[in-house]
Write a structure and sequence with these properties.
Blueprint: H1 2-14, H2 22-34, H3 38-49, H4 57-72, E1 76-102, E2 106-107, E3 110-111, E4 122-129, H5 134-139, E5 146-148, H6 160-173, E6 177-181, E7 206-209, H7 211-222, E8 228-251, E9 256-266, H8 278-297, E10 304-311, H9 319-327, E11 335-340, E12 347-348, E13 350-354, H10 358-371, E14 378-382, H11 393-398, E15 403-405, E16 408-409, H12 414-417, H13 430-449
Parallel strand pairs: 4-5, 5-6, 6-7, 9-10, 9-11, 11-15, 13-14
Antiparallel strand pairs: 1-2, 1-8, 3-7, 4-8, 8-10, 12-16
Helix pairs in contact: 1-10, 2-13, 3-8, 8-13, 10-13
This protein binds zinc ion (ZN).
Length: 459
Amino acid sequence: MKQPLMLAALLLSSLGQSQGNPEIVAKVIELGKSGNQTRAHLEYLCEQIGHRLTGSSNLQRACDWTAAKFKEFGCQNVHLEQWGEIPVGFDRGSRHTGRMVSPKPRNFEFTTRSWTAGTGGLRSGGVFEEPTTVEALAKAAPKGKWMMMLPRQGDGLPTKEVRDAVLAGARAAGILGTVAASRNELVITSGSWENLDFANLPTNVDITVRKSDFEAVTEAMKEGAKPVLEFNLDQKFVKGPIPVYNVIAEIPGASKPDEVVIVSGHLDSWDGPGSQGTCDNGTGTMVALEAARLLMAAGAKPERTIRFILWTGEEQGLWGSRKYVEAHTAELPKISAVIVDDGGTNYCGGLVGIESMKPMLEQAIAPLAEAFPDLPMTIRAQEKMPQGGGSDHASFNRAGVPGFFWNETGVADYTYIHHTQHDKLEGAINRYLVQSSVASAVTAYNLACAPTMLPRQGG
Ligand SMILES: [Zn+2]
């Protein structure tokens, strides 16, 4: 591999506007391909720590652990930077079971919203279908039972007012909780800490079970059986305020330390039962961590500072990055680029920028084409920087700082994984993680060594 890389180095230097030192780039590629640690980082994150809801003790452990790793690699200025606090913390324990006990024993896949009540131990009881009138509720003898919810939308449903009244009546009568069906076989977790008050915590147990599991119960009911369901959901609220942090580490720039290239992903995840927060976004953050290790191990001395940031609060509205932008307004003009890896386990297939950025970006990724010939990358230019987008790069583009989202390319099906019960280690694809970590390291290093910062829109 040495000779082709040397050739590439010669070609690039003949372009007359060199970026990173080709020997360092070659070293990063060699180390990244021969002893890549992304998978090992990801295993620790997913198996030793697990899912990482913002404000949870798992996320705090992940922040502390990643900061320790950045220090171990020799990064500078490693710290947790507080971006805010949330009113109430939430910890989901490992005890999360849900099943039909009879007539046909069946384990469920299911979730509850984050920051909602667990069962406080095992709750077991019969079921009844959500009544369509308040009068019908009494006949269902709801106390001590699970209420099987009608679909949210559809023909022939009672009005919202009636449904709300039935639900309130059922809760007052002492149901164990509500059980609703997911829209398809994906069980999606969401939730919010907003308006939470530790003195007045939510108490209702509302469970969403996988569509086919829900239908197994309603089928049994139709056949005249009296199904019994049990749930045991270990969900704890933690008295706040809970401080929340982004994890920051740097390789200081040699000649332009105040100019910065940011490599990032979000460390928080959803925490639904089954999820380890692997692909959203364990992969992106462990890629950033490995990029730091590779650059340090290769002895990279970039001209600009390369700053690694692991955001948190992303899932509830890009909180970590938005607050970072607000807190660092004076430095924004000196941030050359912010690169986010947050599209799952696929490989870094390219970036979208504006025409004036294209030569510099193409040069930055050029060595990767040779290093990973079967994983092609492209730089696509459009008239304006993309606005919006569901991850932390959007916070920067909104502020006029070039924010990039790696165009995730490959065979993994992100929809199957994203925010669902399937976001587990088994979904991670190693050879893509190897490319992603090397691509992140090389691209950031080259941009950090380019003769100028990236051109900006309108600039
Ligand atoms: Zn994400």
